[in-house]
Input
Amino acid sequence: MPAHEAEIGRARLLELVPDGFEERDAEGDVELVAYVDRDTEARLRTAFGDVTTAPVEPGWEDRWRAFHRSVQAGGLWIGRPWEPPPEGVPAVVVDPGRAFGTGAHPTTRLCVELLARAERGSLLDAGCGSGVVAVAGARLGFDPVHAVDVDETAVEVARETARANGVRVDVSRADALRDTLPTADLVVANIELRAVEALLARRPAARAIVSGYLAHERPGAPGWEAVARLERDGWAADMF
Output
């Protein structure tokens, strides 16, 4: 699929294949790959239309681990439970699976980089997914840290992520664009561009870090002052 449609495709695929999938570059496009049974294959064809299938090779059960790589961002190591973190580097451990957000995606890393530069205070992660950004915020010294997501599975996974890392994050189910949100000094949102714009229009905090869109895009943010921007691998994040 075209790169500009990949974020929507990932979210749609995660609903159908909650155990995870592989992502590959395909000459400027993005190819999403998952191990599925015949029933799920039929649902994928209904959802995407353009689907190619191939028989799996022996040992497929463990191949997915090779595609979840650890990264470093904002002075933190972000990786999987089966990988040891580097000595002396604060770790954020994320178990890839039921909720979007393993920490390796460029937009997640950009948000963490901007968090590391931001003045500390209370933090709200709006649309938290797996909770990796909220936990990174807690590791960086933000307190208290709140996280909300409209998806109940994401709420459960974010709570598990916080517990696994031994940090306090208040996670609750809420629609970040409609419901009353916890008060915070800084809001971070790694979501789709139009949702970012709608969230900024609500002004849930005095400061904001936002991402989830391509480098050639800029969120409309009337009344906000852009103070920093980072780009990585064709994606961008902004601090207002």
Remarks:
- The chain has two domains: 3-65, 68-239.
- The domain at 68-239 is CATH 3.40.50.150 (Rossmann fold).
- The mean pLDDT is 88.
